[in-house]
Amino acid sequence: MPDRLPPLTALRAFDAAARHMSFAKAADELHVTPAALSFQIKSLEAHLGAPLFRRLNRAVELTEAGHALAPGASDGFQTLASAWRAAERTQDNQTLTVTAGPAFTAKWLAPRLYEFAQTHPEIELRFSASLKLMDFGRDAIDVAIRFGRSADEGLFSIPLAEEWVCPVMTPAMAASYPTPESLMDAPLIFDDSISFIKPKADWETWFKAMGLTFAPTYGPRFSQADHALDAALAGVGVVLGRRALVVKDLDDGRLVAPFPTAINTGVRFRFLCAQGAEDRPQIAAFRAWMMREIDKTAHITDGLTLIPSREIAAR
């Protein structure tokens, strides 16, 4: 049996026929005649020395050898197609596809994009607001903004600003709850999107940091951080706001953080792209813009005492 691989054209014909279980449909997909497709498959069978299909009256089915070859052929062509799309994207300096979680997209990216669009009209921005971990090659993604403690092996990764949480509320509500003790009687909003963080950065932890023993459980709960923040903006209650998502509202005065103690979560957002792609013009421009935007609200942290959640948990 020869060790060399058969022609790619013959493998492609087999892959299409195995997926459709029809020579006619496979021929339509590949824009060839059924006779030409049948010839390619026969040449592949001759190369193997065994049939790949059983030809029935009005259908075909895979033989044992065909079943063995089909998954690898399908995966191989998908990998090749993905690699080709990735190669094509290296020649595209005008399109930038970014994926980020829904909350970060709504509360950080969307309110700031006007300036980037004005500064870089040559770049067409596309966004995928999803928590799904996407593959840069397979999903045609250029930049990902992700939250957590991942090692990001094999990727270009830059940690963004330190992520902290602290009580935030409307100015009107702050007037009614002037002290940490008074917050025990306030309507509290629960953001469950960061419940996975260990040690916890929740209401009980914040009250503990203030020297108070209080473990609230009653109040509206949200699985998405932006929804919890919208509730606070509407005056529903007080929420433990996450730095990245609240700094613009704090800077614009829509929300206030009246107490100077914040929990340092030890978890950050990261800017990610494929290794070697970080210097592509549109990716470099987007990264530089993000860093400038982060610097614009860095003063929000001034005056805050950041206490690591691990330190609070050890008390």
Please, could you describe this protein's structure?
With 315 residues, the chain is of the alpha/beta class. It folds into three domains: 8-89, Arc Repressor Mutant, subunit A, CATH 1.10.10; 95-161 and 268-296, Periplasmic binding protein-like II (D-Maltodextrin-Binding Protein, domain 2, 3-Layer(aba) Sandwich), CATH 3.40.190.10; 164-265 and 300-313, Periplasmic binding protein-like II (D-Maltodextrin-Binding Protein, domain 2, 3-Layer(aba) Sandwich), CATH 3.40.190.10. Helices cover 41% and strands 19% of the residues. The protein is built from twelve helices and 13 strands. It has helices at 8-20, 23-30, 34-48, 64-89, 102-109, 113-119, 171-176, 203-209, 225-233, 243-252, 281-296, 309-313, and strands spanning 53-55, 60-62, 95-100, 124-129, 143-148, 155-159, 164-168, 188-191, 221-222, 238-242, 261-264, 268-274, 305-308. Strands 9-8-10-7-11-13 form a six-stranded mixed sheet, with helices on both faces. It has a five-stranded mixed sheet with strand order 4-3-5-12-6. Strand 8, helix 8 (203-209) and strand 9 (221-222) form a beta-alpha-beta unit. Helix 2 (23-30) packs across helix 3. It is elongated. The mean pLDDT is 92.
